Amino acid sequence: MIKQFLSKLPRKLPKADQVDSLGGDPGNINANFSNGFQCTNVGSALSSKLNVVKRVSSAVFPTSIAAGVEPVEAHLSFKDVSNSQKPNLFVSKLNLCCEVHDYSDSEKQDLKRQTLIELVDFVSSGSAKFTEPAIAAVCKMCSVNLFRVFPPKYRSNCGGGETEDEEPIFDPAWSYLQIVYDLLLRFISYCSLDAKVAKKYIDHSFIVRLLDLFDSEDPRERDCLKTILHRIYGKFMVHRPFIRKAVSNIIYRFVFETERHNGIAELLEIFGSVISGFALPLKEEHKMFLWRALIPLHKPKSVGIYHQQLTYCVVQFIDKDPKLAGTVIKGLLKYWPITNSQKELMFISELEEVLEMTSMVEFQKIMVPLFRRIGYCLNSSHYQVAERAHLLWNNEHVLNLITHNRQVILPLVFSALERNAQNHWNQAVLNLTLNLRRMFCEMDEELVVACQHKLEEEDSRLRVAAEKRRLTWERLETAAGLQPLAGNILGSVKPATCSVAC
């Protein structure tokens, strides 16, 4: 009887079993927390079993990821724990670095900086094992520390981003931000990192917020971001279309809305490398990026900040598909500056690079509007623009294209050369004009004579038309002077008859 009664009583679990049931069954957790004594026993059991064990915060890691992870005390060194505990210590230190401290608290800032340096050294040593909890912890820590809203810009200029004359602005938090960027770069570049697992945490949202950081006014941060985004593009193939689309959206907003962004040069530098890796034949999506994003980037006033990178991207496209040269030149003519001489100099330099890669067939499609524009540049009152336009003839490939199409090109630029020879104020431009005329004479003297006669006929026609207009105005003034002054302004005045042929 007594044995039957005793057999129905619940048996006492060992301490280890109590801990396992506490971690695995939510019902047991609630029951144990309702009894203060049992909760104390559990706490003492944990501390006696592992001296340096700390429970993971559910605010940092999801329950599904943190299950079974018991990070070691974060303030310990990696040298002071066994190899089996190092992954847990790594997660604990990442968890500690998720805390954001006030800049005035130098003690906590120094501790956080020292912890970040330990993390970088641990990853650099090759001892890190990036399990899913570790991947989640790295992405969480980087998100907390890096992703932030920049203060409003108070720069005096209306253009986008920094100008060549302005001093860059440096972030006061760079001392630890640099270490976070270094850790993120080493994490993404880690040879044993499983991209299939990591892509769940380095997702579209993470990439968009990373791209937002390119608007930082600190050039050191933009340089780090440039390297990291390039590694992400190379490692996560599944994200490549999204990255191209997101960068396109940044460019659209910059060109057509704000004309303010600090990181256009860095983004173009990344895409210069990306474009060189495009497979042939080029996809329609890539050509659309050239037409809709790169060519309109010639429009903003601040194009000088990123023009070198932009030119490189454009040249890479033409190198992949020479048929795109005509499209690029049409785009340059569309956005050609009229009153900005510095932009005009950049456009002529880019035009020369494009023409060097242009075939004869593509050149013939656009040579008429192109050399009409070059004619205006030859005759520019800004001596640098006129000088740079004359120097196009020094390029052997461009000269070859002009020579084969001189019947069309020479009549387009001959009048500009004549006006320069007669009245251009700059002696250097005048000398270049005379050299160019001499070159055309050696190339085709008959064509030069024909252009000269045509220009003289045109000048004669213009003089006759001008004289005709002068006589017409004289007749009108004489007719107006003969009219009597009417006493009543509103009275009807008989108009003077004057046969004027206009």
The separation of the N and C termini measures: 134 Å
According to DSSP, the number of beta strands is 0
Oligomer: single chain
Radius of gyration from the CA trace?
37 Å
Q: Major β-sheet, in short?
A: none
* Averaged pLDDT: 82
Note the overall shape: elongated
Order of helices and strands: HHHHHHHHHHHHHHHHHHHHHHHH
Structural class, from secondary structure content?
mainly alpha
The low-confidence parts are 12-68, 155-160
Residues in β-strands, percent: under 5%
Number of helices: 24
Helical content stands at 55-70%
Question: How are the secondary structure elements laid out?
Answer:
Blueprint: H1 2-7, H2 15-24, H3 26-33, H4 36-49, H5 63-66, H6 86-96, H7 106-124, H8 132-146, H9 174-189, H10 195-198, H11 204-212, H12 219-235, H13 240-258, H14 264-276, H15 284-294, H16 303-320, H17 325-334, H18 341-356, H19 360-378, H20 383-390, H21 396-404, H22 406-423, H23 427-443, H24 445-481
Helix pairs in contact: 2-3, 6-7, 6-8, 7-9, 8-9, 9-12, 11-13, 12-14, 13-15, 14-16, 16-18, 17-18, 17-19, 18-20, 19-20, 19-22, 20-23, 22-23, 22-24, 23-24
